[in-house]
């Protein structure tokens, strides 16, 4: 199969792509092959330098034979990637395509099965720890971590009162129901809790899983240098969702929006997105991993949620964003779904990104980190920690001292928070789309910003400064007289 090289050369190195100049460091080449096979597969292109210039391989046939021998002699279990020579201008490059392997974990023979296992973390190869190796071997044997029984424990080790409270009086949660939910399993004729049951409702959960708790922190600024407030959440996992929300609300502020029939509180942080992200972390964390709890960090510009556990083999961040899902903890996932904390499996990440676009917020960022995954939710406005300021709460009698109330009224009228923000910005001065995006705190001009600008134009609320050249790079927008009257009517 011929691979198009030009698009490949323009891609950055990452989880499924790496470039090497030559085979002068065979051990590093083998690490990459092993990491690809243990993760989501990938392509190793040999004959491209660090500047992404094609330099080719000196003796193509010899290089092809050498890489095949290195892989055959240096990696176990046996791995057979696709190796192909491709012509690029006057050069020949070697492309090694590695597929996700069902025989994982693969390892370097020179280091052995305990030390020679590597996984792909971003654009680098990382030595896998014993927890990851154990999880991979369980998967190969068809075993799921949170379905495994804990034979030394009994039903009395579960908080049955909490289970009854969460499921409510309309559902009977007896021993049979607990077995259906895989919270109990019969072992030698005796019902014993599963690891998922203890993680969800165990009376002494952290005695068995020391890192199964949530660390919350509020930091000054944009990094973890100066902590302002912190809180530890040790509640049952379903109850942890609300406790984490309460911590986040403690460091946010709210304003009132008055609709036709009732008052509604509007929070300064996107609670629906954050709740979805928190639930996703609680459901998909690797609780077999030791060394780090789930972490929720509130900064001035964003909220990071970090969950332990690398992506499951075969998964990439792009897969997550497109809605592909693999459940690490099916027992926990099912209970959360039964309790109404999650909806359709696999739709959470897509809803998070969709909500960000709807609210006109910067696109969330998912990153693989040393301990697992981090999902960053960027805020629509800067949040400084400490007591509420006059910007956060209305000042009676001064309509210009209450921009949040005006924005809420505009949002209700325009049915879009982003449209309201754009109209308010253009009341102050003319601006192009790039300037609007910057003022809104967005990294780029989003599709939603294009949409709302177009809608405001159609409504006659704003107009172009260069109407005869709608596509001009110098195009700016300003509020129309009609738009000005609408804003004045909203203020009054």
UniProtKB/TrEMBL annotation:
Domain Schlafen AlbA-2, chain residue ranges per copy:
13-128
Question: What InterPro entries does the record point to?
Answer: Fic-like_C, RecG_C_sf, Schlafen_AlbA_2_dom, Schlafen_AlbA_2_dom_sf
Sequence segments annotated as region (Disordered): 384-410
- The UniProt record lists the Filamentation induced by cAMP protein Fic-like C-terminal domain at 435-480
A Pfam match is: HATPase_c_4
The UniProt regions of compositional bias labelled Basic and acidic residues, in chain numbering, are 390-410
Please name the PANTHER family in this protein's record.
Answer: GLPR-RELATED TRANSCRIPTIONAL REPRESSOR (PTHR30595), SCHLAFEN ALBA-2 DOMAIN-CONTAINING PROTEIN (PTHR30595:SF6)
- The name on file for this protein is AAA family ATPase
Q: Could you tell me which species this protein originates from?
A: Pseudothauera nasutitermitis
